[in-house]
Write a structure and sequence with these properties.
alpha/beta; elongated; 434 Repressor (Amino-terminal Domain); 2 domains; 12 helices; Endonuclease, Chain A; 6-stranded mixed β-sheet
Length: 285
């Protein structure tokens, strides 16, 4: 990957981690530059994700920063290699926004994804028909099919392996805002039931009578990135895109909110019974 195409989500993550390690070691940018025998601008570009780093240079910095844990070193070296990785969505060009590319990268690099949705169903749990209804209402008609194909491709992550786990909490009103005819609605409920039975998927429904602070009703996703030690980040959805939160206090706030949501939501078994009841109602109406 040429430097002109950076920063990417992975190069920013690597740079942020190297900056954190340098600061924790009590070192300045100039100390790192002296170790690599380069100028300070190169270190700044690495730490802001604007350029990658050679494996030899990375080893030098990790030694300088006192990183001795083998798993942590291996994880950072893998991330440095993956900065240049070409993903399946790389060829989509301008059809995919930068925010969506960032989200796809986080999702693909995660071992655990936890998502709360108050208004729509999580993308990985949507049927193709539901996706098309959502995108037709919200996107330019030329983007509808590429967006549907991209979301359908994302569902490959749910292949039943233990390498990727998905946990979602769905606010109950979202289940009653499914657009389209009754057949589409019933198909979506059946799909939720079937997907929720996968060993790596957990679905919980947040009932209407739960009282939580209004601030906790914003949609967000917590990503636990692969590697040791695992890194957690939070992604906030908004009308014009998304925002990544990496600072530990911010992530801790959303992790606490997640714990509150899962404690207040119906259990996975109760959620399945609720979905089963909805399927019956749709079949009888």
């Amino acid at each position: 990957m040429p430097q002109s195409e950076m920063p990417t989500m992975r190069s920013r993550r690597l740079g942020a981690e190297l900056r954190r390690l340098r600061n924790e070691a009590g070192l300045k940018v100039n100390d790192a530059a002296l170790a690599l025998e380069c100028g300070q601008p190169k270190i700044s570009q690495i730490e802001t994700g604007k350029r990658g780093i050679r494996q030899l240079d990375l080893t030098t910095l990790l030694n300088l920063y006192g990183v001795t844990d083998d798993d942590q070193r291996t994880n950072l070296k893998r991330l440095a290699r993956d900065v240049h990785k070409v993903d399946w969505w790389s060829g989509q060009g301008p059809l995919l926004s930068d925010d969506l590319r960032d989200y796809l990268t986080l999702e693909a690099d995660s071992s655990l994804v936890r998502s709360f949705e108050p208004s729509v169903l999580p993308g990985l749990l949507q049927t193709e028909a539901y996706m098309r209804e959502i995108f037709t209402a919200a996107a330019d008609k030329n983007y509808v099919e590429p967006l549907v194909k991209t979301r359908m491709r994302r569902k490959d992550l749910l292949g039943g392996t233990n390498e990727f786990r998905l946990r979602v909490v769905i606010d109950m009103p979202a289940l009653h805002r499914i657009p389209g005819p009754k057949d589409l609605i019933r198909e979506q409920f059946v799909h939720l039931m079937e997907t929720g039975e996968l060993p790596n998927v957990t679905i919980q429904i947040l009932p209407l009578d739960v009282a939580l602070p209004l601030s906790q009703y914003a949609p967000y996703t917590l990503f636990t990135m692969r590697g040791e030690p695992p890194v957690q980040v939070a992604w906030l959805e908004h009308m014009t895109g998304g925002t990544l939160l990496e600072q530990r206090p911010d992530v801790a706030t959303y992790t606490k909110a997640w714990d509150d949501l899962t404690a207040a939501a119906l259990s996975p078994a109760e959620s399945r019974r609720y979905l089963s009841d909805q399927i019956k109602q749709e079949s009888e109406s």
